[in-house]
From TrEMBL:
Gene coding for it: Dock4
CC annotations in GO: cytoplasm; plasma membrane
Coiled-coil segments on the chain, per record: 136-163
Organism of derivation: Sula dactylatra (Masked booby)
Family: Belongs to the DOCK family.
Protein name as catalogued: DOCK4 protein
């Protein structure tokens, strides 16, 4: 009935399983296969439509999440409890898409959903009271991607240091993903997109953001260096060759910054 809800699925429930559960509950509904805002013909239609997509919780208590010394299980609790706001992102390209470097034109349409009551509550779902839509520029998008990745690396390194991690695979995979992407063009693509004279002259208002991106890239290099030092102390013998490859790749990446 043209209403939106945010629903908390069962523990470890995949999105496909949740969709199927909802379609079993509403057997006459037509499933929409995209997360774009439906057009007016859908809202006015006689038929019943269901549009289901994943959303990300926006924790209210950012102070707890960012403070050092708070146990990770407490942080994990606040990430998914007492949540009023959720969001989802839709990437899109504005203008001509550069085939060599798509970061230049990659915008994000971010939709924030605000509920009538925080989740989880008495019910597993509550109605959306308000939605806000903003567009994030390619540079803002790059800054957020790096901020999130740096935070993820810090958390994994900390867990590894304090022996909260039973095996080091999550840290290995994260280090590998970041270093591999950087060597194969990740960080270099950002440099080509935002640090060139042409971009700086055409976007004088982005001076502070360009400085912020540069700081995050240098910060990431420091975190990776420290992460590799921690990784070296705990890496099992059979993963030594991979560790050596990561160290070699890291120095290639660092020299390109």
């Amino acid at each position: 009935q043209n209403k939106e809800f945010v629903c908390r699925g069962h523990d470890y429930e995949r999105l496909e399983a949740f969709q199927q559960r909802m379609l079993n509950e509403f057997p006459h509904a037509i499933a929409m296969q995209h997360a774009n805002q439906p057009d007016e013909t859908i809202f006015q239609a006689e038929a019943q439509y269901l549009q289901i997509y994943a959303v990300t919780p926006i924790p209210e208590n950012q102070e707890v999440l960012q403070r050092d010394g708070i146990p990770n299980n407490i942080k994990s609790f606040y990430k998914v409890n007492h949540i009023w706001r959720f969001r989802y992102d839709r990437p899109f390209h504005k203008g001509t898409k550069d085939k060599e470097n798509e970061f230049k034109s990659l915008w994000v349409e971010r939709t924030t959903l605000i509920l009538v009551q925080s989740l989880p509550g008495i019910s597993r779902w509550f109605e959306v009271e308000k939605r806000e839509v903003v567009e994030m520029s390619p540079l803002e998008n790059a800054i957020e991607v790096l901020e999130n990745k740096n935070q993820q690396l810090r958390t994994l390194i900390s867990q590894c240091q304090t022996r909260q991690m039973q095996n080091i695979n999550p840290l290995t995979m994260c280090l590998n993903g970041v270093i591999d992407a950087a060597v194969n063009g990740g960080v270099a693509r950002y440099q080509e997109a935002f640090f060139v004279k042409e971009y700086i002259l055409n976007h004088p208002e982005d001076g502070e953001k360009i400085t912020r991106l540069r700081e995050l890239m240098l910060e990431q290099a420091q975190i990776l260096e420290f992460g590799l030092a921690v990784h070296e102390k705990v890496v099992p013998q059979d993963m030594r060759p991979l560790h050596k490859k990561l160290v070699d790749q890291f120095f290639v990446m660092k020299s390109s910054l």
